[in-house]
Amino acid sequence: MRRKNRWWIKTINDVPPERKLKLKAQIEPVGKTWCSREFIRIMESSAENKRLSKGLLCARKREACRLIIEPGRIKIGISCSGYTIRDVDFVVSQLKDAEWVNLVRIIAADTALSGALISGELSETFVRILQDHKFYFIPSISTGFYAYCSCGDVNNSCIHVIAACYFIAEALDENPWLLFYIRGKSREEIIQAVKKIRPGSDLPKISVPQTVQSGFLSSGITIPKTENPVGFFTFEGDGPVEPVQCNGQEVIPISLLGKAPYSYGQKNLADIISGLYPRIVSYANSVCNSDERK
């Protein structure tokens, strides 16, 4: 009688049904999140077209099993032709301790990154900002992501590796923070590291690019005294709202204060607030007109 140990079996028929993996995207493109779609895009850009079509067909029509994702390694069993399981291994380069310290400081210094980390939103903006700091989390050969298959096909990527990438992409749909985990740390570990950072800590300081510069106008306009704010933060006259003007040019009051020392994503906070002024003026005018009609 043949022993059916699920960790040693070699055919997909011997895998218990609850251990089999089926690709969810049977018709639509694989990848629901930006991270998984970008992972697929990079993989497809370096693979041969005929192998891509065969690999996708394999992933959709056949099955996979024993998906293992851990720091530095991803492993999955793929069954394409016949019933034999081909073991596909991915080796992932991990970040060094000093790199993690630097990464945590970058996230802690940016309110958008910190908020996204805590809320669990791994967006394109989040990844792009980290890429600007030379941290690349989307797996590719250029970022230390190498595949090995037991099929013996000397061409890389073989159809089993391609099929495996589609299954990995759907795993990223369920938990995109696996991109960090395979590099060495889970999202929870990063959150705890960010929370520990306080002013005056002995962690090395980093240089986070800021666009802080003087925002005061050359016209000589200055911030008014608190007892005389007319013409700066208030409106004059009984008609529509009159924006603050300097030499006939409309001026957004907050711009006189200069750039904020904080950023949200890649934008200075003062620039974001300035973008709200047209809506504020429009709403204020609508309120004034409503009061006049009454």
From TrEMBL:
This is SWIM-type domain-containing protein. It comes from the Archaea. Coiled coil: none annotated. Residues 136-169 form the SWIM-type domain. GO terms for molecular function: zinc ion binding. Signal peptide: none annotated. The keyword Nucleus does not apply. Keywords: Metal-binding, Zinc, Zinc-finger.
